[in-house]
Amino acid sequence: MSNKHKILDAILEQGMLPLFYQDSESGSVEILRTLYKAGVRVFEYTNRGKSALPNFKKLKEIRDAEMPDLYLGIGTIKTPADANAFIEAGTDFIVAPIVNPAVAEIANKIGMLWIPGCMTPTEISVAQEHKAMLIKIFPANILGPEFISSIKDLFAGQLFMPTGGVEINADNLKTWFKSGVCAVGMGSKLISKDVMSKGLYEELFDNTKLALDLIQKSK
């Protein structure tokens, strides 16, 4: 099995892809350690600030030393330049908020999992043309579970993951999975501004355990 398929299987098994960015290197490391301790084995750091690349390199260093069974990906990759920079830094997979065929080509050339963000059926079709195995529905809080229910038969067999607005709530999660998603992306609803600014790592640990448990029950 290729690494691409192993990572995809890990996301499907986990049912959740946690994601965040913060400027602080030490804070980023502590959040990664907390998520891992709570059971996370696939994680997305997002390229949303000036410290993203150096922080990612530090997370890669920590991952290699302490968490060899963790898949560490990079999100918010919109350009080939960004893709190449983080591939060189050792990312395991790439997540994007958009469909950029040039980024897809880079990922496909090296057999790397590329998860593009889509908002319309046309974008989903373009993503499929560029071999997207998993498609991020973004922003999910705008589109809602009804969007997935409405389009899933048009794209039979396609894997979808909503990101944005997914909550740590049994009813919310059940609604998403019932609509036909295979996993959910979870950012600020899990890794909140308070968690980052106040170092509420015990709260993050508890919420991550809860989210993982609710997701397994919702699948």
TrEMBL record:
One of its GO terms (molecular function) is lyase activity. Keywords: Carbohydrate metabolism, Lyase. It comes from the Bacteria. Pathway: Carbohydrate acid metabolism. InterPro entries: Aldlse_KDPG_KHG (IPR000887), Aldolase_TIM (IPR013785). Pfam families: Aldolase (PF01081). Belongs to the KHG/KDPG aldolase family. Homotrimer. PANTHER family: 2-DEHYDRO-3-DEOXY-6-PHOSPHOGALACTONATE ALDOLASE-RELATED, 2-KETO-3-DEOXY-6-PHOSPHOGLUCONATE ALDOLASE. This is Ketohydroxyglutarate aldolase. It comes from Pedobacter ginsenosidimutans.
